[in-house]
Structure formats: C-alpha cells, structure tokens
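Q: Got a minute? One more chain.
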Amino acid sequence: MTKGLTSDVTKRDLSENQTSALPIENPEKNQTDDQINQSRWKMYYRSLIVACTITICLAGWLSWEKNEAIWTILWTTPLGKPMILIFTVLMIITVSELIWRTELVYRYRAIPGLDDDKLPTCSVIVPAYNEGPQVFKTLESITASDFPKRKFQIIAVDDGSQDDTWYWIQKAKQDLNGRIITIKLPENQGKRHALNAGFKKSSGDVIVTIDSDSIIEKNTIRNLVSPMITDRKVGAVAGNVRVLNKDKGFIPQMLDVVFVYSFDFVRSSQSMVNTVMCTPGALSAYKRSVVMRVLKEWLGQTFLGRAANIGEDRALTNLILREGFKVLFQKNAVVYTEVPVTYTNLCKMFLRWNRSNIREMFAMTRFIFKPFRKESMLGARVNLLLGWLTLVKAPIMIVLTWSLIIWEPMTFLPNLLLSVVIFSSLPAGFYGWKYGSFQSFWSYFYGFYSFIGLAWVMPYSLITPHNSGWLTRQIKPQKEESFSAFSFNSSDSSSIIPAHEGNKAPL
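A: Always. Here it is, folded:
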C-alpha cells in the first residue's frame, strides 16, 4: 500500500444532518405511489417535448415550402448559388453527425463502480483561488465519499488567494478529522501550477481533480476511477458536470440544459470511440503514472511563444491521448459546479474555453493522424475533423446569415428565428426525455440568447487565440476577526511553498 494512504479515520457522525421521518402507516406503499406519480409526470413531459419538437419541425418545413420562390431567385444570383451550396453541405454534415452520435449514445453504458477491494489508491486534488467558504463545502463533500478511507488522500492547494480561502481550507482540515493535506502558494501562479503542486504531493495510483466551487455525490469518485481498473489502457476519465447554482438566475438555468447535452450526449458519444476530447476541470481522473510522464511538457506548454495559462484540462487530455491511452466518460460520476450568473462572466468563460479549444485542436492535429495507439483511431480522427468544422462553421454561418437578412429581411429573419428554435429542440428534447422536466424549455431561451449575445464569441476567439484572459473570483469583503476565529497548529500535512519553488512541491 502506498505510504500516506493507510490510516483509517473514524467516520464523522452525520446524525446532526439527518432529519427525523414523519410516522406513516405504510412507507413502502407511499413510496410506490410517489414513484408512480413521478413516472406519470415524466411521461407527460416527454410526450409534450415530442409534440413540440414535431410541431416545430413541421413549421420549419412549411416555412421552407412557402418561401421556395425566394430560394429559387437566390439560386440565380452570382453569390446566391455558392451560399446555398455551402449551407446545404454544412447542414448535411451536421445531420450526419447527429445521426452518428445518436447511435453511439444509444449504445453507451457507464461502467459500474467497483467493490472496495478492487479500487485503486486515489489522490484528490482541489486547487482554489479566492473561493471563500465554498471550498469548505467542496472538501466536505469529498470527505463524505464512500471511497475506502485507507485508499484515499485529499490535497487542497491555495493558489495565492487574496481572500479568506486559506482560512476555510484550514478550517476544513480541522473539522474533517485532519484528513486533508494543505498546500499554500504565496502568490497566484495559475491553476496549472496549483495542480502541479498537488500532483507532486500526491501518492495515489489515480489522481482526481475537482474544482473548488463544486460538490460531488457520494459515489462519484468510486464510479469515476473504476474504468481504469476494468481497462488498463484507460488513462483518463471525464466526470459528468451539472450546474450547482441553478437558483441564481436564468443563465445557470440555461447552462444546466446545455451541460446535460454537452456531457450526456456529446461526451457519451466520444467515449464510445475512446476519445473524449476534454476532461473537465470540475471533475476528472488521471492515471498518475501517465501524468508524471507528461508533467514537465504540460507545465511548460507554450502557444505562439507565450506560456499557456488556460486550458490545462484540454491540454492534459491531449497529452494522455497522444501517449496511446483511452479517455472515457462516466455518466454516473456526477459533480455540481458553479457557473457564471452575469453576461460578462459568461462571455469570459466561453472565450477561455474557445481559445483553449482552438489551441488544442492544433496540438491534436499534430499526432491524431499518426498511429498513436493500437486500438481503432477512426473515431478520434472523425471527432477532430468535426471539431475543426465547428470552428470554421461559426464565421461562415454568421456571414451567410447576415447576408440573407440584409438581402431579404422580411423573408429570412423569420426563417432564421425558426431555425434557432429547431436547433434548440435537440438539447431541449434530450434533456426533457432524460429528466422529464419543463426545465428543458430553457434550451429555447438559450438558443436566442446565444444568437443575439454570444454569436461573436467564436469568431473573436479565432482571431485572438493567443490571449489568455481568466475568469477569476472577485474578492469578497471579509471581517478581520474571521481569520482569528480558530487557531491551528502547524503539522506535517501543511506546506507553505515559496513562490520560486511553486513547481517543486515536496513529495
């Protein structure tokens, strides 16, 4: 057994968080009735979703028939013919991709969590910057995991926070039975360096990274790491990310539907060809031996001569794929994470994601068409080509859209709006069928919101991939006395790393 993971810790008494059940005559019958009612409501929602989708598609077809003459006239113009041809090709590819991914998702099955004796040793790393009390909740949810304590290591890294994050990390260490190893970087060096400090400190066979604004389910880590035991060629596993702060406004509500489609649909299909394109920062697992093999290259990554300080998750995924390992998705490993609630921060997040995606598409292209692994590589290459198509399609569609609107606004603007509704039906229908909830209709709001307020993000990212803005936490006001509410004794499990040694955390 790996040193540092052998000590058993008495389980916390959680009785204080448990509510007493009300006396009922027949709990089994009541439970059955509730399940029946819930099932009926889900069927109602699903039927409604199907009906709405059919109605919308029918309306789109009728609209096309009504404006057939306009399309005929457009075909006879010098620019109209290539515009229609480009649009047709893009639509054929989009529909073909949808059919392909739907078939893969239909066959996808998450790998069940293994028994305690089969699980590997695991180190969980939580990097934090200006997170405040949320980091305590994150660490608390991790310690409540059903993972065997003798195989479990938790490392919290404060990346030079300017608020009370270090206080809450130390409080978690004290309140959670001292199970947390803490590292403090005296100045902010970026998430990549914070993770590196945790990697160097880790001792588990598998490393799990969890964002400090996230909450995991009890069985999440068990389910997340199990594929690495059932298949030794699995080098990384992506978790299933859901929105934590859905009650904070309409933007989180919309993003929850988008996340379900992005993970349960897109990543499920990618997992079926062993090539998940990005393991999310909110929740991912990596084989430690592979991470250590590529750690120096990952840490020193540059783009156009500048140090890369964004996209650390996508970059690490690329390196693991390049080493010949599979990257899978576990739908049953769920994490709830906070998302932006304002338009400004939402744009920053998407800019960061898109710029990282562009950079790593170039990096992936350099090895994907070589024999990088023994297993089939066709699915990986198709995903890369579809990724490139998505990047190129964005500015093309914007040019086509605005050209048509300017040429014939009274005809094409209503059709465009209808098209937004039709394409929004896919994530709406998927969410509604999966969860049987009216929450799915937020997809339509997101469709219009994205068209009006976010359409510029992708084209702007394409011309500014070298920029490295970061969505940082705002420093929250705090009382000075809050830092002295508890006193902590220094121990071997806490490290204060000098700024110049941020890349050399002790083992």
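A: Residues 28-69 form one domain.
Q: Perfect, thanks.
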